[in-house]
Amino acid sequence: MKTKNTRNIFLTPEIASEYDAYYQTETGKLVDKIEKEIISGYLRNLPKTNWLELGFGTGHWTEFFSENGLQLTAVDNSQAMLKIARSKNMENVEFLQADAARLPFPDDHFSGIISITMLEFVDDLGLVLNEIDRVLKPGGTLVLGCLNALSEPGKNKNNDPVFQHAHFFTPNEIIEMLSRFGSPRLSAGVYFSLGFEILDGTEKQSTAEPAFIAASVEKQK
Ligand SMILES: C[S@@+](CC[C@H](N)C(=O)[O-])C[C@H]1O[C@@H](n2cnc3c(N)ncnc32)[C@H](O)[C@@H]1O
Predict the structure, then answer these.
(1) Using CB atoms within 10 A as the burial measure, which of 21, 27, 102, 220 is most buried?
(2) How far is the CA of 182 from the centre of ligand 1 (A)?
(3) Does pLDDT of 209 surpass 70?
């Protein structure tokens, strides 16, 4: 059952409790590996202190960021997700339940903000982008992982019980969304065939649209 009238399906405890199971499937493991390679490329040359993660979910990515030395404050508005993430006992992470549209931090506070597939599920994208802009220091970096509207999962999202609640982004929408901060850099991966077979590393990938688009932008000083 969905909680209240919101796009955020992850407020529902049943959905939250099933979330990590995907990463245990063969497809989930492969997708995770490809996405982490892409995001690692963006983090490699950035300072590691004073990061904010938005929409930490079950803490699956938080664990990866923490293992890679990022010092993080992590925010999600789902009590059910918070409970699961906290149970993982991560070091160097402060977990907070808060709405990304009303962040409890002062202006120009963070050196970096990272968010993996959260903006797709927020109720008011404009408010969340304003908050990101407000709490990110000038010269700081915003890194996003997004779901591509042009990919097979994007085109078929209404057949999926979770994705049907999401707004997938086209590459142009991502560029438009980030251009207020500076000049975004995009990379992509996770190519699915029509039968949802992963094509990365095969010749066939050139015939498909990537499902995952990562973007990074430095906020103008
Ligand atoms: C698809 S999950 C992604 C979780 C994690 N980043 C990952 O990739 O495994 C989206 C997350 O965004 C959170 N979320 C959605 N709207 C939010 C909001 N307005 N404020 C904070 N978190 C939000 C949800 O509760 C959920 O945990």
Answers:
(1) 27
(2) 24
(3) yes
Nearest CA to ligand 1 atom 22: 76
| Predicted confidence (pLDDT) per residue in 68-101, tens digit | 999 999 999 999 999 999 999 898 899 999 999 9
| Interval between CA 47 and ligand 1 midpoint (Å) | 24
| DSSP assignment of 93-159 | EEEEE--TTS-SS-TT-EEEEEEES-GGG-S-HHHHHHHHHHHEEEEEEEEEEEEBTTSHHHHTGGG
CA atoms within 13 A on the CB side of 3: 13
Q: Which domains does the chain have, with CATH numbers?
A: 9-218 (3.40.50.150)
Distance CA 168, CA 163 (A): 8
Any atom of ligand 1 within 6 Å of the Cβ of 212? no
C-beta of residue 184 within 8 angstroms of C-beta of residue 216: yes
Kindly give the distance from the C-alpha atom of residue 57 to the centroid of ligand 1, in angstroms, as a whole number. 5
SS3 state of residue 186 = strand
Number of the ligand 1 atom closest to the C-alpha atom of 57: 27
Contact 168, 149 (CB under 8 A): yes
Q: 164-179, pLDDT tens digit by residue?
A: 999 999 999 999 999 9
The position carrying tokens 């990379």 is 187
